[in-house]
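PROTEIN DESIGN WORKSHEET
SECTION A - STRUCTURE
LENGTH: 582
TOKENS:
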């Protein structure tokens, strides 16, 4: 027994001493736990999308880098084919150059379009105000180059290099031929000379000579001579003519080559300028792209580290809080088991006390009936011997009160036997007016003892017979008039009683108890029917009671299927009205 007392004492001094701190720590831990969960949710909902946005920008930078590399390759290819074309004049290099230039234009546009997908990248580009203008300029230059179709080739003119044929009229205006014949004479021979020639076969022939003279006229120039001489002269004239024509041809060819060279030079310069402009633009884009990519990576790394730190710290905090909450819950569990042990002991003690209380209440309720019966017998005996009407009325009031107390004692005895029994009406048949008069007459003496005056108005007819619970009606009047008497000093209590309406063998009794006592505040009126409710004015009242009166009255009125309400003005008056169906 002593060990139990020591344990109980240690329990009270030790565990209960820190109970408040433990509970508040647990509440704070749960709140912090929720805050950490909110931080994690915030991190996942708001910070992770930021990381995704930065990752999307990095993807855009990778696309831009891809188009930038393609543009750089197109620039190198175009430059290479332009140089080879200028060296070899091979048309295939010109075709490849034009294809590379078209691809360069296309990839620059793709690069710009990709940059427009990212507001941040666009912001970087807008820092260089001339960059957008440069993009538009290079697009215009490439488009204009495609439109004009600059093609460096020698523009041959068939008439420019045509050699004019020599005209006969330019060489000979007229041609005259003069022919003359001359005969050679043969020497006369003798006989023997002729015989010798005959034998040897020699024949002397007479030769004729023909002479042809050509006279050629060309304008004023006239030349005569043999055919050979004139043919030589014609060939010489023809040769001089064509020498002159070929000399003109060389001069024209030199002029055309010079023009072609100038055109090639212009073409090379224009395209070189275009490629240089493209290279300058590409360099700017690459510089901005590198800056944008580095910044995006840095932002991504910073945001990633921030999210990671928030997540790590939140998880560590959650683990710590879970450990702390587990410790606190273990402590509270131990405390709860201690509570339970003590509650079991307290319950046993309470049960013992309740049994003792029921026993005492039962004994009092049972034993009080005998004195009450004796008082009732003596009262009836005295009333037969006394003829004074005032004494007779007092004796009747005593007898009535004694009977009410006897009935109430019987009800208390029943409740002490069965606490779970609900409050019910114990009905009996009686004359309503007579009983109400007896109740109010008994209460008149009670009120006058407190230097108050009870004014009664009983408007119930004499012939109204009722079957109901007279004891509970008595309780209603006793509690309500008793309350008015407690809170009124040298004042007036007015009791009005009457039948409100009658229907289907029932009467609705209306009772109004009004006093000019201390009154009730508005705040107390809100809780007037609560159990153990005592208002501010209760401090000035002796023998106040437990504050169960009006709560009990409300239960009794509801048993009669009625209603009750209270109106009051502090320091002015209080009015209680209830209706019961009889």
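SECTION B - SEQUENCE
RESIDUE ASSIGNMENT:
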């Amino acid at each position: 027994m002593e060990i139990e007392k020591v344990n109980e004492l240690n329990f009270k001094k030790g565990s209960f001493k820190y109970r408040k701190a433990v509970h508040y720590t647990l509440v704070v831990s749960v709140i912090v736990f929720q805050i950490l969960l909110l931080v994690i949710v915030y991190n996942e909902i708001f910070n992770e999308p930021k990381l995704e946005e930065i990752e999307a920008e990095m993807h855009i930078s990778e696309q831009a880098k891809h188009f930038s590399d393609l543009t750089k390759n197109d620039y190198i290819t175009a430059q290479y084919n332009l140089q080879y074309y200028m060296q070899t004049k091979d048309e295939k290099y010109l075709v490849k150059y034009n294809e590379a230039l078209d691809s360069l234009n296309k990839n620059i546009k793709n690069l710009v379009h990709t940059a427009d997908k990212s507001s941040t990248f666009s912001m970087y580009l807008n820092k260089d105000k001339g960059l957008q203008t440069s993009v538009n300029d290079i697009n215009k230059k490439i488009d204009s180059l495609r439109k004009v179709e600059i093609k460096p080739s020698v523009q041959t003119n068939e008439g420019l290099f045509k050699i004019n044929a020599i005209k006969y009229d330019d060489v000979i205006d007229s041609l005259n031929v003069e022919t003359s014949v001359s005969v050679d004479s043969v020497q006369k021979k003798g006989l023997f000379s002729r015989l010798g020639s005959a034998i040897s076969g020699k024949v002397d022939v007479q030769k004729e000579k023909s002479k042809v003279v050509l006279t050629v006229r060309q304008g004023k120039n006239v030349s005569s001579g043999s055919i050979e001489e004139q043919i030589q002269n014609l060939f010489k004239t023809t040769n001089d003519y064509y020498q002159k024509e070929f000399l003109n041809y060389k001069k024209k060819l030199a002029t055309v080559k010079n023009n072609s060279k100038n055109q090639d030079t212009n073409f090379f310069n224009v395209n070189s300028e275009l490629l240089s402009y493209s290279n300058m633009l590409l360099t700017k884009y690459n510089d901005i792209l590198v800056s944008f990519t580095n910044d995006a990576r840095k932002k991504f790394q910073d945001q990633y580290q921030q999210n990671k730190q928030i997540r790590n710290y939140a998880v560590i905090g959650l683990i710590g809080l879970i450990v702390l909450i587990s410790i606190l819950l273990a402590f509270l569990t131990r405390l709860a088991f201690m509570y339970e042990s003590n509650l079991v002991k307290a319950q046993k003690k309470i049960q013992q006390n309740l049994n003792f209380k029921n026993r005492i209440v039962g004994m009092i309720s049972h034993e009080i009936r005998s004195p009450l019966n004796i008082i009732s017998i003596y009262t009836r005996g005295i009333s037969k011997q006394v003829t004074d009407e005032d004494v007779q009325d007092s004796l009747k009031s005593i007898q009535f009160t004694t009977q009410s107390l006897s009935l109430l004692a019987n009800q208390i005895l029943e409740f002490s036997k069965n606490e779970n029994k609900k409050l019910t009406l114990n009905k009996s048949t009686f004359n309503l007016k007579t009983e109400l008069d007896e109740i109010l007459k008994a209460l008149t003496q009670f009120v006058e003892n407190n230097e108050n005056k009870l004014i009664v108005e009983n408007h119930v007819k004499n012939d109204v017979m009722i079957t109901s619970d007279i004891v509970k009606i008595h309780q209603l009047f006793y509690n309500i008039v008793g309350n008015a008497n407690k809170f009124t000093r040298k004042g007036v209590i007015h009791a009005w009683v009457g039948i409100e309406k009658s229907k289907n063998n029932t009467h609705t009794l209306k009772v109004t108890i009004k006093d000019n006592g201390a009154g009730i505040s508005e705040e107390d009126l809100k809780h007037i029917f609560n159990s153990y409710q005592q208002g501010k004015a209760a401090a000035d009242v002796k023998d106040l009671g437990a504050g169960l009166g009006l709560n009990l009255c409300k239960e009794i009125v509801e048993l009669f299927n009625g209603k009750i309400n209270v109106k009051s003005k502090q320091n002015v008056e209080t009015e209680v009205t209830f209706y019961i169906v009889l």
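SECTION C - NOTES
Residues 1-6, 147-158, 543-547 have pLDDT under 50 and may be disordered.
The CA atoms of residues 105 and 139 lie 7 Å apart.
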